[in-house]
Amino acid sequence: xxxxxxxxxxxxxxxxxxxxxxxxxxxxxxxxxxxxxxxxxxxxxxxxxxxxxxxxxxxxxxxxxxxxxxxxxxxxxxxxx
Length: 81
Prior knowledge:
This protein is mainly α. It has a domain at 34-81. Helices cover 81% and strands 0% of the residues. The chain is built from two helices and no strands. It has helices at 14-56, 58-80. Helix 1 crosses helix 2 (58-80). It is elongated, with a radius of gyration of 28 Å. The protein starts with 13 loop residues before the first helix and ends with a helix. The relative contact order is 0.05.
């Protein structure tokens, strides 16, 4: 009796498998982009709140100024070494 099953051939079409992998990778990439974008928007919102507070409170402005000056010194030192 003849058999029509050929065990040597793949059960899934290779083009379809590549397409499914590409789609799932694209969805994962979009999701990670959305998470990064949401985190950046939250950070921008917090920065804006801090800046508005600094404009009304001299102590906060002085702290920000000191922190920015220290960061500039460190950044400049890294360029020399």
